[in-house]
Every structure is written in C-alpha cells, then in structure tokens.
Amino acid sequence: DQQVKQNSPSLSVQEGRISILNCDYTNSMFDYFLWYKKYPAEGPTFLISISSIKDKNEDGRFTVFLNKSAKHLSLHIVPSQPGDSAVYFCAASASGSARQLTFGSGTQLTVLP
Amino acid sequence: EAGVTQFPSHSVIEKGQTVTLRCDPISGHDNLYWYRRVMGKEIKFLLHFVKESKQDESGMPNNRFLAERTGGTYSTLKVQPAELEDSGVYFCASRSNGYGYTFGSGTRLTVV
Question: Which of A43, A46, A104 sits opposite B91 (nearest CB)?
Fold first, then answer.
C-alpha cells in the first residue's frame, strides 16, 4: 500500500519549456513534503520542500505547489535545462515519526536539447 | 563538511553468503537512517538510529538483517544469509535536528 504515489514513471520535455512532476499522497498525517533529485550512481539530493501550512514554495527555477484538500503536490521547473534530466522523487514525512521519509517510486525526467 | 560515505559502492555475492554494508554519517549528525530501493521502485525506509540507539526498525524486512551503530558514529548493515530478493540499492542518510537529510551514494547489492 503506497502512501506516496508518482504515477508517471517518465516525462520528456523540450529545453526551455516547463516540466511539471506530480505526486499524490494518502496519509493525512503527512505535514512536510520534499522533492529529491537523483542522478545515476548517486544518492538522492534535496531539491525543495514545503510545509503543510503553505501552498507554494519557490526556489529559483523550482516551485512546489501543495493542494492539501486533494492530497496532491507538484514540482514545476521553469525553464527546464538538459542538466535537469534525472529521477525525481517525491517524499513525505509526519511529525512525531522522527522525520522518517516515505518516498514515491520516482519520475525520470528527460530534458531534450 | 564531508558528506555521508557508504562502502562498498557495489557488492556481488552469492545467495547464502553474508554481506556487511557500512555508512559513515556527517560528523555530529545524531540521526542515521537506512533506506533501500529495490528494482527501480520506491525508496523504502529500513531503520532509524538516534546516536547508538535504534529508534525505529519497523522497515527491516526480516531477521536476516542486522544493523548496528557503534558509539553513535558509523553504522553497519549486515545481511546474513543473503537471498535473491535482497538485491537493490541501499542508501544511508544522516540528519541533524532539522528536516534536512543528506544521503550517501548508496551500495548496490546484487545477490546471484
């Protein structure tokens, strides 16, 4: 029973366009959400996060949106660059769980030059 | 600041053998986690140490897996005896008191 789902295993986008990666969750106790990027043969690296008290967080080209009523979050990358090609993982945690992360299965983003 | 170091980076062992994975967290990080990614699926939690104490080991698959954290510093994860389904990438991560995790590069374990 996956509590965090990324339903698109892959996404291809043209360089310069917007990349939108989606994530759904089922556990209403989750109150903190993170996106990680992973290159081959490397560990996940933190990209951006959002607390459940917010609905948007921006950091440069990256914006995360949270819709709590729909239990949905998305990551927008604008403009997309070839170096953004990687696997993106959505993760969630709940307070009181010692910040254990529950991950989705990842979305492979390919940005085409 | 040195990152989280894991070794070996790759390990190929036969079914029934024993393998020990090691993780050196960022110095001063009390929280240490082990995660595993199997067959390109989601990254799953295995266990969590606070200093040398196991805080939560609810994700450990079975008693063939044994984790230790000596003196609250480095940690080892032993699989004995290894089975085919144990193949995957094992990630270690450490965290201080905030939300930020730092992951190691992982150990790719292949059981043949």
Answer: A43
Nearest in space to B80 (alpha carbons), one of B20, B22, B39: B20
Q: Which residue has the tokens 């990842």?
A: A106
β-strand partners of A14? A112
Residue-wise pLDDT tens digits, A47-94: 999 999 999 999 999 999 999 999 999 999 999 999 999 999 999 998
CA distances from B25 to A13, A69, A90, B6 (A): 36, 37, 23, 9
Terminal Cα-to-Cα distance of chain A (whole angstroms): 38
- What letter would DSSP give residue A34? E
A4-48, pLDDT tens digit by residue? 999 999 999 999 999 999 999 999 999 999 999 999 989 999 999
How many beta-carbon pairs under 8 angstroms link A with B? 61
DSSP codes of every residue in A35-89: EEEE-TTS--EEEEEEETT-SEEEETTEEEEEETTTTEEEEEESS--GGG-EEEE
For residue A72, what are its two tokens?
A: 């949905």
Is A92 touching B (CB cutoff 8 A)? no
Shortest Cα distance, chain B CAs vs residue A40, angstroms: 9
- Strands A56-59 vs A72-77: parallel, antiparallel or unpaired: unpaired
